[in-house]
Amino acid sequence: MPETMICKVYGPEWYQRGGLQEVLAYRQITAALRLSIAPTLYGLIDDPAAETCVLLIEDLETCHQPVASPMADAWLDLLVDTLADFHAQWWEDPVLHTAAFLQPEDTVMRMAQAISPQGIQANAASARIAVSRFRSEYGSELSEEEAHLLARLDARWAGAFIERTVDQRGLTLLHGDFHLLGNVFTARQPDAVSPIKVIDWGQVKRGLGPHDLMFALLSVDAVDRRSRDLELLRRYHQRLLARGVNHYGWDQCLWDYRFSLLTNVYQSIFQGSLRWFRRTLDVVDLWEAQELLNGSANTI
Predict the structure, then answer these.
(1) Banded pLDDT at 1 (limits 50, 70, 90)
(2) Model confidence over 81-120: pLDDT tens digits?
């Protein structure tokens, strides 16, 4: 056994909000991965009656380090390849239709979860309340374009997401919290067997693969962010195809990425963060966003 480990304890307050999903991730998902991107699990106790679980997880400190900023291009390319390989393994997998992936979440990341139409509508109702609070706090600071986008999201987001996901095609397993501000680690040695490791698997869900990529890139600044993101999205899409993903065209991949950016607007609203609201909108062309919400969600 290693000299040090990480102990994660979920009590009753957080058992449903991440604990159960992390147990699911380590029991069912990471064990089946063909690539070792999750830390090693050394032990797990799950007590449903007490709504408590304990996980003993590999301490990455000796062999990995948090992503350096700015992230080198070679590491960014490897990150995209790793994410595409992960998504390709779970692309349209039957396990994504089981109860564990259809149970609605109650976290700020809930909007990316592709569940039933009723569940998506329920999330949209919760978002409507959050938007009302957000407007009360920041309404005087919102531009006319930003206010109009919020109104269009309220009117159209749920319908567009339902239209895109109702036939369950082109869905995969999301890490769900794939950010580069502490959840992704790179190996200290370039020839490591597992050059990239990802922690915090408590938000795994069924959804649109480009959402994970969007969430990772959002915190990585670039001189020309849109060109950089488009190039990496093409790399991601080509990697999916190379790994055997079928019937997922470039136009759909691009739509999914752009829709994921709009979906992420809701996370900043649930968090009450005007900074991250603006950070997301910096990457969103507001006119294109209107067209996206007005057009068809399915090009597969």
Answers:
(1) confident
(2) 999 999 999 999 999 999 989 999 989 999 999 999 999 9
Q: Residue 68 CB: number of other CB atoms within 10 A? A: 10
Distance CA 154, CA 55 (A): 39
Find out whether 135 and 57 touch, Cβ atoms under 8 Å: no
Which pLDDT value is given to residue 228? Answer: 93
Cβ(296)–Cβ(166) below 8 Å:
no
Show contacts of 49-53: CB within 8 Å, 24+ apart: 50/12, 51/11, 51/12, 51/15, 51/16, 51/19, 52/9, 52/10, 52/11, 52/12, 52/15, 52/19, 53/9, 53/10, 53/15, 53/19, 53/20, 53/22, 53/23
pLDDT digits over 123-147, tens only? 999 999 999 999 999 989 999 989 9
Tokens describing residue 262: 């709009």
Structure tokens at 78: 């490897």
3-state SS of 130-153? HHHHHHHHHHHHCCHHHHHHHHHH
Q: How far apart are CA 253 and CA 260, in angstroms?
A: 10
pTM value is 0.94
Q: How many CB atoms lie within 10 A of CB 70?
A: 11
- Residue 300, pLDDT score: 53
Residue 125 and residue 110: Cα distance in Å, rounded? 12
Q: What are the angstrom distances between the C-alpha of 272 and each of 34, 173, 275?
A: 38, 27, 9
Closest CA to 105 of 256, 260, 270, 269: 270
